[in-house]
């Protein structure tokens, strides 16, 4: 296969060789004349461009003869555009004017890393997201970023999906939208299914790996994902995006905007619907969402309102596929009840202000409110005692019925609201850049369960709640971060954050235990680092950061309140180099993440038989990440990334259930494990992307992904493992401007073209049962997997008016 790729590449390269024309230019401040290193130069409609070097110079070479549109952008300056004809004589000069209007980018500045911030990060722009945005959830659009592993319950990237970065799952990854927390306050998770097609309203995403900089919301324990929604457009527009594909997948999106009205006002809107039958049996998804944004853009002040909402119904595929069925029935779903569904609605309201208060001071404030409500419905067959629902046995004649078929709904009804802010001060000489920021947020969540049907009616009515509890969580933080240029191009960075948490419970949990109680935490999270911008364009950096994190909801509700696990703590060291040039770019970094009291599942049971998490004293993640791209010619671009890591737990105790000769529960047996791999942490993750542009408006891409083997638990047993996998996707993109519309884009995405059978996610549990020899016993391990689909496709057309 490698030989075949090389032969194809050589043949196509010689066939499509092009003339070598260049565009040379310089980017500088229109007022001071100073060069603007790092300015982005884009060939509009081509998907390629360059970055200005330390002297503000750039080169776009190997260009065919013709007309081109250039767009130059730099944070804090007005975007500049120019039409040029190639071949070009002389050098272009772009004199960038400082922005008199507060740019929308400042809305996320307080929680983001900048070019001189000594941490590991990557920015994914709107054009990159749009290439694969044919209906799959946001994690799959980020699949080819460094150290990323994605998974899907339904097996096709629609419905319940998730991601891990450096082995850390979504409960350990901080996510913000315009600097506003998105993680669920109790579980710390992010449920992308509640935000279908959100990528269609995203301008860019910054992923910080490791602790990163201070942000709002959940503690960053593996990475942070900072999302900025669409910014204003100068001109009115309308777009339609429609796609279809395997498993009856459909996506329909309509977008429109007014452009700037009277130079001050703009309104944008999106409406989306996504549906899919899923790869797994009955694992359908029916998803709907909208996004509306309106703003006032004054000379020194911006006021903006965002309202977005998502509604989802998905058939549950939570149980996975038993290991023994992977070869014969990979699409198996144990649920058969026709309404075994998850149903949830979530509305978001954001009011955002950004302003220039003076030449040195900018401000950003935001108020937010999220209203979520929904339930999942389950059919429970005749294997559950009525007493588990607080119902007395039912007497019918001489028969006393203690079990019966039940349909239940478990509800969540919550409100999340608060405010965030940041103040940015830049000294007159530009050497000091400081941000004071923070936020205060409250979560008010009701959890309750209903029985809506019983095969044999007892002394209960429909909608009676068999459990009901409320949780209130107050989360507040304040941070001060500053970058100071101590010497020419040598920057010192400091970041101090305080975070306080009050968490209160009241009521009965679903296991009928009273969980009333409260907890309080105070965390101090300092960060410090250095960065150096060398004359050759490289930026070197190193940093040390501390993060602390409270337990999640289940750690409180499943454990007796007198035995709540301790908070987790992380010490993170990052060091690396970044480099960008016209023809190639790369980054390389080393990291060490030292955990104290990390919470893991050990198999330990609480007093009602639920699995609880326990602290392990010492664990760590260490690795190297490489990322780069090279433009070999106007037609060929190669890119990719590679991460090698070692992820270890020093020592932990595993607990397995023991059943006696009569198959009765006889307790648990403890086994100590030392120096084992952390679950779901592959030692190698990599991507390789080949882009070929035989024509100006045609792009063909091969996208390769490799994920090393992962263990399903922390025992490092070879019979509890996810096998390594390599997948290859093919993408065809073609654009044209027929005249009657502004543009039409056609995309075909063929996933897993070699039909690999693989599973990126799963779970396991083990127990001892009586053995064949009298008095003997054997350990039984049951593994469950979430298989991904074989070869499948998505095809779409986007029309711009």
From TrEMBL:
Report which residue ranges the record marks as coiled coil. Answer: none
* Localisation: Cell outer membrane
The TonB-dependent receptor plug domain covers 116-222
Q: Supply the alphabetized keyword list.
A: Cell outer membrane, Ion transport, Iron, Iron transport, Membrane, Receptor, Signal, TonB box, Transmembrane, Transmembrane beta strand, Transport
- InterPro entries the record matches: Beta-barrel_TonB, Beta-barrel_TonB_sf, CarboxyPept-like_regulatory, Plug_dom, Plug_dom_sf, TonB-dep_rcpt-like
Q: Which Gene3D superfamilies match?
A: Carboxypeptidase-like, regulatory domain, TonB-dependent receptor, beta-barrel domain, TonB-dependent receptor, plug domain
Question: Where does the UniProt annotation place the signal sequence?
Answer: 1-19
Q: How does it sit in the membrane?
A: Multi-pass membrane protein
Tell me which PROSITE patterns the record gives: TONB_DEPENDENT_REC_3
Q: Which residues form the TonB-dependent receptor-like beta-barrel domain?
A: 313-753
For this chain, the family text in UniProt reads:
Belongs to the TonB-dependent receptor family.
Family annotation (PANTHER family): FERRICHROME IRON RECEPTOR-RELATED, FERRICHROME OUTER MEMBRANE TRANSPORTER_PHAGE RECEPTOR
Q: What is the recorded name of this protein?
A: TonB-dependent receptor
Q: Which organism is it from?
A: Negadavirga shengliensis
């Amino acid at each position: 296969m490698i030989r075949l790729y090389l032969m194809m590449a050589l043949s196509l390269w010689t066939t499509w060789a092009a003339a070598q024309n260049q565009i040379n230019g310089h980017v500088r401040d229109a007022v001071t004349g100073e060069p603007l290193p790092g300015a982005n130069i884009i060939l509009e409609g081509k998907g390629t461009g360059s970055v200005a070097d330390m002297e503000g110079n750039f080169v776009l070479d190997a260009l065919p003869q013709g007309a081109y549109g250039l767009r130059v952008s730099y944070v804090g300056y007005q975007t500049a555009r120019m039409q040029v004809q190639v071949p070009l004589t002389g050098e272009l000069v772009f004199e960038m004017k400082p922005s008199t209007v507060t740019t929308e980018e400042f809305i996320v500045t307080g929680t983001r890393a900048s070019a001189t911030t000594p941490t590991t990060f990557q920015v994914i722009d709107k054009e990159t997201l749009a290439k694969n945005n044919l209906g799959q959830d946001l994690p799959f659009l980020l699949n080819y970023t460094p150290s990323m592993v994605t998974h899907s319950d339904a097996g096709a990237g629609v419905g319940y999906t998730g991601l891990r970065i450096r082995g850390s799952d979504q409960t350990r990854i901080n996510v913000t939208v315009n600097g506003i927390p998105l993680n669920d306050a109790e579980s710390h998770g992010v449920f992308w299914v509640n935000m279908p097609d959100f990528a269609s309203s995203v301008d860019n995403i910054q992923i910080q790996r490791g602790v990163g900089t201070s942000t709002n919301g959940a503690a960053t324990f593996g990475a942070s994902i900072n999302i900025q929604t669409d910014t204003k457009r100068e001109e009115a527009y309308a777009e339609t995006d429609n796609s279809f594909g395997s498993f009856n997948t459909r996506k329909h999106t309509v977008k429109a905007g007014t452009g700037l009205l009277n130079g001050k006002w703009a309104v944008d809107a999106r409406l989306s619907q996504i549906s899919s039958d899923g790869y797994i049996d009955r694992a359908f998804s029916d998803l709907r969402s909208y996004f509306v944004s309106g703003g006032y853009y004054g000379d020194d002040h911006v006021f903006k309102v965002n309202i977005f909402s998502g509604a989802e119904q998905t058939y549950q595929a939570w149980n996975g596929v038993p290991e023994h069925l992977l070869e014969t029935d990979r699409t198996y779903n144990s649920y058969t009840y026709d309404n075994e569904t998850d149903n949830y609605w979530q509305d978001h309201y954001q009011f955002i202000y950004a302003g220039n208060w003076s030449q040195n001071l900018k401000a950003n404030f935001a108020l937010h409110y999220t209203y979520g409500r929904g339930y999942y419905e389950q059919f429970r067959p005749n294997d559950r005692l009525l007493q588990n629902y607080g119902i007395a046995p039912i007497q019918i004649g001489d028969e006393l019925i203690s079990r019966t078929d039940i349909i239940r709904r478990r509800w969540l009804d919550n409100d999340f609201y608060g405010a965030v802010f940041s103040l940015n001060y830049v000294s007159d000489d530009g050497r000091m850049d400081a941000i004071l920021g923070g936020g205060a947020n409250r979560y008010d969540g009701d959890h309750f369960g209903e029985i809506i049907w019983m095969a044999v009616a007892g002394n209960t009515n429909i909608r009676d709640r068999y459990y009901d509890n409320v949780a209130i969580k107050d989360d507040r933080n304040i941070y001060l971060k500053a970058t100071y240029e101590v010497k020419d191009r040598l920057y010192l960075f400091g970041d101090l954050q305080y975070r306080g948490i009050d968490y209160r419970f009241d009521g009965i949990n679903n296991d009928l235990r009273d969980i009333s109680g409260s907890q309080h935490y105070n965390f101090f999270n300092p960060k410090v680092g250095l960065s150096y911008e060398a004359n050759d364009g490289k930026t070197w950096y190193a940093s040390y950061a501390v993060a602390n994190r409270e337990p999640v909801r289940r750690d409180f509700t499943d454990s007796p309140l007198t035995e709540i696990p301790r908070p987790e703590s992380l010490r993170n060291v990052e060091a690396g180099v970044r480099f960008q040039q016209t023809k190639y770019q790369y980054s390389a970094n080393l990291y060490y993440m030292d955990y104290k009291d990390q919470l893991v599942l050990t198999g330990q049971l609480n007093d009602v038989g639920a699995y609880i998490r326990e602290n392990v004293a010492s664990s760590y993640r260490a690795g190297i990440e490489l990322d780069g791209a090279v433009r070999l010619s106007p037609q060929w671009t190669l890119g990719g990334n590679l991460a090698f890591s070692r992820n270890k737990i020093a020592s932990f105790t595993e607990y397995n259930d023991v059943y006696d000769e009569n198959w009765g529960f006889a307790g648990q047996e403890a086994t100590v494990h030392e120096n084992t791999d952390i679950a779901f942490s592959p030692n190698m993750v990599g991507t390789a992307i080949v882009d070929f542009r035989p024509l100006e408006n045609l792009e063909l891409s091969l996208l390769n992904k490799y994920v090393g083997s992962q263990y399903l638990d922390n025992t490092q047993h070879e019979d509890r493992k996810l096998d390594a996998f390599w997948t290859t996707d093919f993408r065809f993109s073609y654009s044209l401007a027929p005249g009657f519309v502004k543009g039409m884009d056609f995309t075909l995405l063929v996933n897993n073209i070699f039909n690999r059978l693989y599973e990126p996610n799963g779970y396991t549990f083990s127990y001892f049962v009586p053995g064949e020899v009298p008095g003997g016993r054997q350990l039984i391990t049951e593994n469950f997997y979430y298989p991904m689909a074989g070869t499948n496709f998505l095809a779409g057309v986007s029309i711009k008016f």
